Design the sequence.
């Protein structure tokens, strides 16, 4: 989703903000200060450790309901089912789910529903589409981390290319198109940072999406997903 380089389209050889700023940014945002910590951050993203488990929990509940009943899932049924599964899982572990945990799940479903409504209005999602998974939030950042590692001299281009290919394989296991991946990435970014403000955390991605969807040389138009 980093389209700021224009026609370069995230070329592996670009060094982003330059050596010193790249290192400063990695330390400030990720605690990355050397090759080992860079590799650790990258591995965590490839394993989806940055995506909150609760996000995937509620999205998987909806996917199961969609497969069971077909088509769209009523938000009320989604909330009820998520609550029931949460309570059952807690009981199986020998504990109980608190009222706050149940309320948090229901609140999250509401947030996702409202974000998806905005996504449809802005063309990020088709009329009857939904976000499959938020793992793209980590996979997209893993691709960025590989490139940042080149700029900060924590890795070289061949190794970074191998990591990006790994990201590609993981992404194709979860998503069926560039558009599905993008919607998952944007939802993860918004859930992480935006807090339903629809501020720059969202508008930056909306702009990137519009560029990728319309630019004649965009990877979406020149590189098949499958």
Sequence:
């Amino acid at each position: 989703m980093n389209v700021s380089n224009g026609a370069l389209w995230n070329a592996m050889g670009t060094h982003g903000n330059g050596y010193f700023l790249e290192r400063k940014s990695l330390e400030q945002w990720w605690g990355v200060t050397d090759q080992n910590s860079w590799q650790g951050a990258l591995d965590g993203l490839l394993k989806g450790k940055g995506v909150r488990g609760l996000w995937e929990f509620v999205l998987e509940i909806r996917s199961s309901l969609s497969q069971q009943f077909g088509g769209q899932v009523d938000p009320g049924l989604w909330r009820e089912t998520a609550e029931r599964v949460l309570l059952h899982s807690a009981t199986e572990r020998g504990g109980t789910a608190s009222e706050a945990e149940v309320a948090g799940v229901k609140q999250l479903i509401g947030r996702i529903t409202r974000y998806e409504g905005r996504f449809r209005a802005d063309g990020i999602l088709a009329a009857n589409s939904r976000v499959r998974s938020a793992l793209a939030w980590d996979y997209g950042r893993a691709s960025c981390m590989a490139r940042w590692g080149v700029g900060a001299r924590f890795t070289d281009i061949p190794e970074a290319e191998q990591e990006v290919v790994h990201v590609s394989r993981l992404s194709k296991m979860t998503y069926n198109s560039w558009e599905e991946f993008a919607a998952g990435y944007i939802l993860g970014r918004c859930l992480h940072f935006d807090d339903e403000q629809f501020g720059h955390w969202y508008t930056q991605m909306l702009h990137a999406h519009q560029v990728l969807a319309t630019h004649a040389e965009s990877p979406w138009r020149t590189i098949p997903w499958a």
Remarks:
- The two ends are 18 Å apart (CA to CA).
